[in-house]
Structures are given as C-alpha cells and as structure tokens.
Design a protein that fits this description.
With about 700 residues, the protein is α+β, with helices and mostly antiparallel strands. It contains 29 helices and 13 strands. Its cofactor is Zn(2+).
Length: about 700
C-alpha cells in the first residue's frame, strides 16, 4: 500500500547537511594502540532548523543523503580495518583482555548504529537515489564484515588469548567464545584445503538457495475456471481476476488467490484442483535443488565438526539438538491427538451434511474451519474494526506495558525524522526515572517503504571501559493504512500484530547486557519471539480489549464482554488441528537436515497420515518443491516459532493468568529474563524465573479449554 499524493506533499523534507569528522579514543587507545574511531556528526543547518537527533544518541542518524551514506560506509570500513589491524599486531607475549577482546567489542558496539544509519534508509527513504546508495552501502559493509571474520592474523591472536584462560567476567567470556566461533565457522581452524572447501560449499549453498526461490518467484502457473466452479467467492475477488474470451476466470497460484479458494470456494473439486496445482509447483525443478542443497549443508556441517546440518544449526539455541526438537514436536503432536481427532470428526460431519459422502481431504480443512467459524461465532471483523482506531490502541498498549514492566513512555518532539508522520518516544524506568532507551514508530504504508511489519535495532545497549553507556534505540515499522490523510481503524489482526511487534521494542530496550553482541534483539533465536508471543496474549483478555478500545471514552465505546469472550474462543478454534499442520512441516524440515539421503517423497507420505490423523498428503504433491522456509531463513529451525509460542503460553498462564498486568511478576520478567540478554543461557533464565523447566502443559490446556 502507498501513501496518497496529499500525504506526499505534506512530507517534511530535511535540508541538506554537511558532515564533519569527530574522533574519540576507545580502550585500544588507552593501552597505547592509538586506534582512533572516526564517526560523522551532522551539522545544524545554517538556517538554524529546530530539528535535532535524540538526546544522547550522537551516532543514530536519519535523513542522510546518498553521498553521506556512501562516505559513512567507507569510514566504517576504514576504521574497522584499523582496529582489526591493531589487534593483529599485538605481540603474542603481551596479549590481554584490554588489547584483544575489548577493542573488538567496543568497535562492534559503536559501529552498529553507524551501520544501521547506512542500511536502514533502503527500507524507509522516499528518495530512490538514497535507497540505491543504502543498498550499495549494505553490500560493501557486509563484504567487509565477512572478510574480517576470515582474517587469520586476528583469529590467531584471539585464539591464543583464549587459550591463556585469563579470568574475565562471564559475559566477556561468552563474547570471546562468540569471536572464536565466528572465525571457526568460516573454517579458520581448518587446513587451507578444507577452508577452500568451506568457501566453495557456502557459495554453492547460496546459489542453490537463490535458484530454489527464483524458481518459485518465476512460476507462472495458472488455472481457469468458469464462474459456477468458483461459487462462494465474493464478487470483488472475482472482479479482480482476469477473464478469458470464453468468460473463464484466470487464477494464479499466488498465495492470496490460493487462500481465497481454499477458504471460501464451495466446490470441493475446485478446492482439490487448486490444492494439487499449488502443491506441485516447481516439483521437477526444485526437488533436485533441495536434495543437492541438503547434501551440501551436511558436508559443510561435517567439515565444521558436526554430525549433520541440524546439529550445526541448533548448537547455540535453547533446543541444542535435533533429537530434542523432534521429541518436543512429537510430544505436542501426541498430546493434541485426542482434541484434534474431535475437531476433525466435527469437520467431517459438517462436510457430509453439505456435500454428501465425498471423502474429506486436507484441502478441505480451511474451508470447513471457516464454515464453522461463520456458524458458531457471531463475529464481524469489519464491524469490530471501528473499535480500534490507532489513537486508542497505541496509548492502550503503552499503558499495558507501563503497568506490566514498570516503565514510563513519553513522546519526544522536535527531533529529526525521515517522514512527517514518524514519531519518537523515550522510555524511562517508572521507579527511578532513569532513561532506558528510545524508539521510533513508522506506522503507515507509503511508496518506497519496506512492505513488512518488523522491529529494527538502530542502536544496542553497551557499557564501555570508560564508564560510558550507550542506550538502546529501536524502530518499529508497521503497514497501517490511511484514507484521505487520516489513519484507518485497525483490523483485529493488525492489533495483534502491533502488540507482537511492540513486545520486540520492550525486549530491545529492557535488554541491559553490557556487550552490544548480546543486547537489543541479539539473543538466542529460540527465545527471541517469546516476549512478543507473551504480549500477544493480552490481546484476547477482556481487560485489555476494553482498555485499547475505550482508552478514551469520548471517542468510542469499548467492546462488550460477549465479543471479548468470542474473540478468545475464535483464537483457539480448531487450534489442535492447526498445530498439527505446523508440526508436520516442522518435522519434515528437521528430519531432512538430521538424516542422510532422505527420500523426500517417502518421508512426506509417511509423516502426513501419522501427524494428520490419517489424512493423506494431497495426491501428487510434495512440500519439498515449494517450502522456502526450509531453504532460506528457517532451515532446520522451522520449529522455533512454535517453541516460542509454547513457552510464552507457560509464562502467561503461570505468572499472569488473570489477564491483568502484574507489576511484580512483570518486573521480575524484565529484570531477570530480559535484562541479562544473550550473554546468558536463555533456558537457564526461564527456568530460574519459573522456578522449574518450561512446560508444554499450558499450551495444551489453553487449546482444550476452548475446544468444541
């Protein structure tokens, strides 16, 4: 979605700013290394603009020009090279924490906001030349960072220092281990021949991933149906489709078209035809690609000392091993079987009433789940939207988080932003008044803006050797709509998404790790989604729904109790079956990366009926051909989202079960789980907070409580 022309005219454009170099001396300089760190400080415009940066955040820049971005990228690379050169030149008989580890840690902390100042504009700038410069800068910086992780001279110094076993803090020790791992995952502990093989395999893996995704992106398969075979689809959807001369509708295999058919089309044959075509996409092209990709990843993992790729991918996650992941998935699947069987039986009965004795297939699930929701839940999500204007939802979320985590949120005005409707906020500890950090909100869709909702770290918390503290700064990007310059009320799914993303903001700001490597969102990936999944739970509580829909009673009335209860029932409707579908694909992903020479076709034919209560895989389909999550981004880690949801359910039920913010427990979570960051084992933090190991029980019980 894009902003309209009227809003574009309202954009407050920043005046060009000149740059000057400012230098400071870090820990390396204290030890006589004379390593200077040059960074850019933006001059005030000569017309004396009132705009300024966030107080205390001298290296978080917005509105850089294309030239400034490229110049800053060159300076980042130049300074990073100087620091790495200095570390490499430390005499081996004089190695210490202060001249080996500390310079690299402080470099990482200080250069992160500078790097983000270069690369974030490609996501947000309205100027094409700035977006191009930002993308170019990102490529240059990424290439440089990779080259640093391949420097044998620096690795040699770090490795020898590590072997000394010097007494340093636990967080510093963890950082040192990360440095060693970064080098060794690039093969620096291997022979030259094996190192070349590591590089070759990484390049091969990148090429195979690109080919797999490109095949899917370039797939132009389509189907044609007369209107009678599309019964149940709304007219506005049909009007959006192309038509042939004989008045058949052209349906692509893009996900929005497929979802509409599988959820709304009354004709079983059409649903089956679309499901088969969608599941067979790129089969001849992508299955051989995935087979080769899995083999290459196994070879890479073995070169790096692991039994298979799954062990490599899971080594530094909460789950640790593939065996534990598979047990986690199979235990949930087994526990949900009875509930899922009742849900499936209910759907089969409904299909029998509406379509006779046609067999029930997996392609019928979405349609009949939707039918039950229509029949059982008196929910009009279009009508509910009016209760959720952004002007109510946002302060409601702020209040929940303030009451829950002991923080105070205040808007910061008169600061430089990259678009007129971007807002900035400061976060304080409500008890001491101490500034904890800042966040920006870029809430509305516009042309040239990144199209997904997410949270980006602009600056991580860090503590420097001279006692200075770098405070965290986050950016929340959303995609809400405007109409005629006014914000459109949020759909309920958008409310849930905003709660989720704001959970990441809270996590980023409350993470007080001393090292930038472990602060912000730099935590165990299996843990990273838990705070956001936890905060989502409040979206379905009557207390919250009334608050965010009636925070200002003069604007609108809050939702009534019955609607609040219905939303919670709707959340868990057929949740056991939905969980089994997710578990199926997570198991497929985990098994192909934890075993050798897996027959993809045989694996899915075996797994599908076992997990999906006897329902066979759609005839002729194979998820191996069109399962990009298992190829790039979540390879061997597809389980992680479910892992987070399960443990978030445990935390919510055991610590916040009545749905009201519990300040004591919230502060315990903030101080003892969020604050330590990635420098401590996430499982240890959760176990200490809960007083026991996390359990799947609350996740299972929440689904059983609202079952049919």
């Amino acid at each position: 979605m894009t902003e309209n022309d009227e809003n574009d005219k309202k954009m407050q454009r920043s005046n060009p700013k000149k740059l000057k170099l400012v230098t400071f001396t870090g820990a390396a300089g204290l030890l006589g290394l004379a390593v200077s760190f040059a960074f850019f400080a933006l001059k005030s415009h000569k017309q004396k603009s009132k705009k300024k940066g966030l107080p205390g955040c001298d290296t978080v820049y917005v509105n850089l020009t294309a030239k400034e971005i490229l110049d800053l990228a060159d300076e980042i690379i130049s300074n990073s090279t100087r620091v790495h050169d200095s570390v490499a030149l430390v005499p081996l008989n004089k190695l210490s924490y202060e001249n080996v580890v500390l310079p690299l840690a402080e470099l990482e902390a200080r250069q992160l906001p500078l790097i983000q100042s270069c690369v974030v504009p490609k996501m947000l700038s309205s100027q094409e030349n700035v977006r191009r410069a930002s993308a170019e800068a990102e490529l240059k910086i990424d290439a440089h960072i990779l080259s640093c992780r391949k420097r044998e001279d620096v690795y040699r110094v770090v490795k020898i220092y590590d072997a000394k076993g010097e007494s340093i803090s636990p967080e510093a020790k963890c950082y040192l281990q990360c440095l060693v791992r970064d080098f060794e995952h690039n093969g620096l502990n291997l022979t030259a021949t094996k190192r070349e093989e590591v590089d070759r395999l990484r390049n091969e893996i990148d090429d195979l991933c690109s080919r797999y995704v490109q095949n899917l992106n370039e797939d132009s398969s389509c189907l044609f149906f007369p209107e009678a075979e599309l019964a149940g689809l709304p007219q506005e959807f049909l009007q959006s489709l192309d038509k042939t001369q004989n008045k058949e509708f052209k349906l692509t295999l893009e996900s929005n078209h497929v979802a509409a058919i599988l959820e709304l089309c009354k004709i079983a044959k059409t649903r089956k035809t679309v499901a088969v075509a969608y599941g067979k996409r790129c089969g001849d092209a992508n299955i051989p690609v995935l087979q080769k990709l899995v083999q290459s990843r196994h070879r890479l993992a073995r070169l790096l000392g692991y039994a298979h790729f799954a062990d490599y991918a899971l080594d530094h996650r909460m789950s640790k091993t593939s065996t534990r992941v598979i047990r986690f998935l199979e235990d949930i699947s087994s526990t949900l079987t009875d509930l899922a069987s009742r849900e499936l039986s209910f759907l089969k009965d409904l299909k029998r009433k509406e379509e006779g004795e046609l067999p029930f297939g997996v392609e019928d699930l979405l349609y009949y789940i939707k039918r039950v929701e229509e029949l059982q839940f008196d929910l009009d999500f279009g009508d509910i939207r009016q209760y959720f204007p952004v002007s109510l939802v946002l302060p409601g979320i702020f209040k929940i988080c303030q009451d829950l985590f002991g923080i105070k949120i205040e808007e910061v005005t008169e600061v430089d932003v990259w678009y007129y409707d971007v807002r900035a906020f400061a976060v304080f500890d409500s008890g001491s008044g101490k500034l904890l950090g800042y966040f920006y909100l870029d809430m509305f869709s516009r042309e040239g803006k990144f199209s997904q909702s997410c949270v980006v770290a602009l600056q991580n918390n860090a503590l420097f050797s001279n006692g200075a503290c770098q405070i965290p700064v986050a950016l929340l990007i959303a995609q809400f709509a405007k109409d005629g310059g006014e914000a459109v009320p949020l759909g309920f799914s958008e409310v849930v998404n905003l709660f989720h993303e704001f959970g990441h903001v809270v996590q980023h700001i409350c993470n007080r790790a001393s090292f930038a490597r472990f602060s912000g969102l730099r935590v165990d990936p299996d843990f990273r989604e838990i705070p956001s999944q936890l905060l989502e739970n409040w979206c379905y509580e009557s207390f919250t729904l009334k608050l965010i829909s009636g925070y200002r009673q003069d604007i609108t009335k809050p939702l009534v109790d019955e609607v609040c209860k219905t939303l919670k029932r709707w959340r868990y409707s057929f949740s056991a079956l939905k969980s089994l579908q997710e578990i199926l694909y997570c198991l497929f992903d985990q098994k192909i990366y934890s075993d050798d020479d897996v027959d993809f076709h045989q694996l899915i034919r075996s797994l599908h009926p076992k997990v999906m209560l006897g329902l066979p895989v759609v005839e002729g389909t194979n998820p191996a051909s069109c399962f990009p999550r298992a190829v790039i981004g979540s390879e061997a880690t597809c389980y992680s989202r479910l892992w987070s949801e399960v443990y978030a359910a445990d935390i919510f039920a055991s610590q916040f079960g009545d749905g009201h913010p519990n300040l004591y427990n919230g502060l315990q979570f903030r101080d003892n789980v969020l604050a330590p960051g990635g420098g401590k084992e996430a499982m240890e933090l959760l176990t200490s907070f809960l007083g026991r190991e996390p359990s799947t029980q609350a996740y299972i019980e929440s689904r059983s409580k609202y079952s049919l």
